[in-house]
Amino acid sequence: MFVHLKSVQDGPAPVTCPPKTGPGVKLDLGWMKGGEMPTKRHTPEQVINKLREAEVAMAQGSTVGEASRQIGVTQQTFYRWRNEYGGLRIDQVKRLKQLESENTRLKRAIADLTLDNQILKEVSEGNF
């Protein structure tokens, strides 16, 4: 649609907008709802079991993409899981997660104590 130019004496030319369009085309990919992967946290046990399922599928000739779709994750998630959990048993993964959470807790405690120590030093020096 074109805007017709009028002379300056007729006033400003009317502005027209293009017609509204509907939503874009959505793909039905089956395992993905609405074109996006659902956000879901998996327990370490679930991750190990899904990795085992994928390994079996790939041993039977499936590609990584097919195997990852079969277990309901993206290829990126599959590779990340394989790098993090590959070759570990369930009890080892549980211990790893336990140590990681303890490490995080201890780092927070150190940060709090360091801040307290710094505040006490500043107060004792009178630099406030």
UniProtKB/TrEMBL annotation:
<dbReference type="InterPro" id="IPR052546">
    <property type="entry name" value="Transposase_8_domain"/>
</dbReference>
<dbReference type="InterPro" id="IPR002514">
    <property type="entry name" value="Transposase_8"/>
</dbReference>
<keyword id="KW-0175">Coiled coil</keyword>
<dbReference type="Pfam" id="PF01527">
    <property type="entry name" value="HTH_Tnp_1"/>
</dbReference>
<dbReference type="GO" id="GO:0006313">
    <property type="term" value="P:DNA transposition"/>
</dbReference>
<feature type="region of interest" description="Disordered">
    <location>
        <begin position="1"/>
        <end position="21"/>
    </location>
</feature>
<dbReference type="GO" id="GO:0003677">
    <property type="term" value="F:DNA binding"/>
</dbReference>
<dbReference type="InterPro" id="IPR009057">
    <property type="entry name" value="Homeodomain-like_sf"/>
</dbReference>
<protein>
    <submittedName>
        <fullName>Transposase IS3/IS911 family protein</fullName>
    </submittedName>
</protein>
<feature type="coiled-coil region">
    <location>
        <begin position="89"/>
        <end position="116"/>
    </location>
</feature>
<dbReference type="GO" id="GO:0004803">
    <property type="term" value="F:transposase activity"/>
</dbReference>
